[in-house]
Amino acid sequence: MTITYSRKSMVLAILPKFSGLLSFLGSSYIFQDVLRHIVTERQRRHHHNHHHFSHGKEKVGVYHRLILGLSVCDLVASIVIMVGTWAIPKEYVGTYMASGTIGTCTVVGIMNELGNMGAPIYNASLCIHYVLVILMGMSEEKIASKGIEWYLHIVPVTFAVVFATLGFIFKLYNGAGSWCWFAPYPPNCSLEPPQPHQTSIIPCTRGHYYHQFRLMHIGIAWVCLVVCSISMFSIYRKVYKQESKVAKYRYNNNSNGGYPSKNGSKSKHSNNNYHNHPNNNNSSQRPNDNDESHSNDNNVEANHTNYNQYITSSSSSSRRRPPKKSKSRQIADQGMFFVIVFILTWTFPTITRIFQWLGWSIPLTLNMLFVVFFPLQGFFNALVYLRPKYLKFKKKKEKLAIKKAAAKWKQQQQIKQKITQLFYNNNNSDDNEGDNHNNNNNDDIWDNNNSNSNSHHLDAVSHTNSYHTNNKEDENNVPTATTTNNHHHHCLDTNSNDNILLTSDNDDNDSHSFIIRETYQNHHSNNANAFASANADAAVGVGNTAAVDP
């Protein structure tokens, strides 16, 4: 006989197997990782005097052992989900791939109750552990030594074993849709005894108290969820207050100009940083030429200071990234992610059970969300478990990138420093040669000016004496000037291109005068003044002599 299965039955039987496989892989990773840490920790303790084992490894504590218990529960539950409808008896005709018996369904149902009852209580134990560590300030060694850890393990294991045993005693494990759990048997049976006229009603032979046990199971799960929510709220409240106090204390230190704090350290934005900063110049005087000799040293010191500041700012990254979280905040975030996974995996099953109790028709979408998200608790817990390792790897990668960037920046600064030093040395050599050349030119100019002024004075005196002699010889005759026409005396300064022209003109017999033309161009003010004063003295002497009347 060919059996036709509905689309809903096929979807609800296939989807959980993929979710259960992901949960199985995630739970298996947590299980083997924690076991490996435990074995390594025991070997390290046994051989603590040897150096075969690194003491820098993370120690195994209460947190890891609670995670191990949680992963075991998720691992068992994920196996149940993967088996799914294969364990359901064949009598469930409308169930896709139902090929089991009452015995297989009972075994799988017991495993289902052990895993799905122990997992929420282990979540509550984990939240209580966070409360003890953060709120009460207890160390993991103290939690383990006082026996508190035993209660955190005994309570979930006890509840899981008790409910699994009661389910077996009351014959509650039967086909419940996609897997074996608390359900009536045979399918579509009635829990109430049928009346004599109700011949079509089939009485239930198994699972008479399945409804009450389902209610207790979900109630315990939500009690654990409330405990986790209250615990995380209290933890975050305390952490927020602590961070607010720390932020206020740091703000007060920074606003006071970097005065020492309680531990004696100065704040990051100290006033000394401003005065010692290489780019801040508190001097109001303009730098002179003598300061240029120290520019290279200042550049080297400035580059060294900038490099140190670059390394400090890169490692802390306080201006680029948010402040570093405290240890309590990191632990609280880790616990909150476990609670979020807990809520996510138990929300859709709870809504589905409420629809069943109210007698409403359950939509296919809600059923799909139920069979997809509920088995994924082990997978999500593995992601949360790997989160600290991922953050550590990310931080290590960022530090490596910062070191590479700092090394590259330092190399660029060294290249710039070498180029600047080379350019500075060339400028110094050129300036020294220019200064020596200018000093030699100035000395030549002074010597030439002194010689030229003396020669002009001697020429003027000789002209005056000759003129007086001629006048004495011709004093009884008609006075005529018998001087040589167009006597020119030139004085050339080759360095400054200065020309002086002295001219004696005899073309006019009635006027006896000397015309002195001076053309003087000099770029050095001191030399120009000296040379002009010498020529002025010579001109005065010649002019006075030439002004004698005949």
Structural class category: mainly alpha
Straight-line N-to-C gap: 164 Å
CATH homolog superfamily of the largest domain: Rhodopsin 7-helix transmembrane proteins
Radius of gyration of CA atoms, rounded to a whole number: 53 Å
Number of helices, where a helix is a run of at least 4 consecutive DSSP H or I residues = 12
Side-by-side strand order of the widest sheet: 3-4-5
The CATH topology of the largest domain is Rhopdopsin 7-helix transmembrane proteins
How many DSSP E strands?
A: 5
> How many separate domains?
2
CATH architecture of the largest domain: Up-down Bundle
CATH level 1 class label of the largest domain = Mainly Alpha
* Morphology: elongated
Query: Low-confidence segments, ≥5 residues, pLDDT <50?
Result: 52-56, 258-320, 453-458, 460-528, 530-550
Description:
With 550 residues, this protein is mainly alpha-helical. The protein has helices spanning 7-46, 62-83, 102-135, 140-145, 148-169, 210-255, 271-275, 295-316, 327-358, 364-373, 377-473, 525-546, and strands spanning 173-175, 180-182, 487-493, 498-504, 514-519. The chain has 2 domains: 7-190 and 206-256 and 319-408, Up-down Bundle (Rhopdopsin 7-helix transmembrane proteins); 474-550, no CATH class. It is built from 12 helices and 5 strands. A hairpin with a 4-residue loop joins strand 1 and strand 2 (180-182). Helix 8 (295-316) runs antiparallel to helix 11. The model is unreliable at 52-56, 258-320, 453-458, 460-528 and 530-550 (pLDDT under 50).
